[in-house]
Design brief:
It contains 1 helix and 18 strands. The chain is 7% helix and 48% strand. By secondary structure, the chain is mainly beta.
Length: 242
């Protein structure tokens, strides 16, 4: 038995190393929470009588809702997972499709669990190949209307991933510390801090001064901070977990 387990472990590690899944830890690619008014209607295309508000995305049967990812900067992910929560307490059946920038679409179907305090659906795509995300298509196959109040997409990032074209390095020395509700930035120059999601979407921009700065933030998950000087020249970046 020990020999068999050793062989399986060795084989699994070999597959992970050759596929780029060396660390195999999921990162948050996108998270939108209606309770925080995170939904942006400009990022969604919804047919029929469906619509998107800041607190909820409403999708009608036979008229899927499509989320368009911003420029991914070549970032690719494997082992995608999608989590959704709904405003209705009834069980929902949905088809969820990931459209990559190239290659074949990935589709998974599932039924939400409405037995607890929240009506929730969790889906895993189990894609071993790394893909760059273009669109996410959500279709209800049961209810006439589905109200999505929470959406999270996770994936295992490829080891070569980066955001906004910068590595997590700096041309000058500077520090960033993530606290509960703010960022502590120690900067050697006057300029700006740009906050990006792991998918490369600009979340916010903040003016900073030379020395210690405290920045209020509401970003979550793996985040990239880009330091720029007063001439808007990028001096470096750091990846942090918020």
């Amino acid at each position: 038995m020990k020999q068999i387990l050793y062989y399986v472990t060795t084989l699994t590690l070999s597959v992970l190393l050759t596929s780029g899944l060396t660390h195999a830890q999921h990162e948050v690619i996108l998270e939108q929470n209606g309770a925080n008014d995170d939904f942006d209607h400009t990022e969604w295309t919804i047919g029929g009588g469906g619509f998107a508000n800041s607190d909820k995305v409403n999708i009608q049967k036979n008229h899927p809702g499509t989320y368009a990812f911003s420029n991914q900067n070549g970032n690719k992910f494997a082992q995608l997972k999608v989590t959704m929560k709904f405003s209705q307490s009834t069980t929902h059946a949905l088809d969820v499709t990931v459209v990559p920038t190239s290659g074949t679409n990935l589709t998974v179907s599932g039924i939400s669990d409405a037995t607890g305090s929240e009506n929730i659906l969790e889906l895993s795509f189990n894609n071993a190949n790394f893909i760059e995300l273009k669109e996410l298509i959500i279709a209800t196959t049961s209810q006439e209307f589905v109200g999505i109040t929470y959406l999270k997409i996770e994936g295992v990032p490829h080891e070569d991933n980066n955001s906004s074209g910068l590595e997590s390095e700096s041309l000058i020395s500077w520090n960033a510390i993530a606290l509960q509700n703010n960022l502590k930035i120690d900067s050697p120059v006057d300029g700006t801090i740009e906050v990006y999601s792991i998918s490369g979407k600009l979340i916010s921009t903040h003016k900073i001064s030379e020395g210690e700065n405290n920045i209020i933030h509401n970003a979550k998950g793996i985040t990239l901070l880009v330091l720029k000087n007063a001439n808007k020249e990028a001096l470096g970046s750091k990846k942090i977990v918020l």
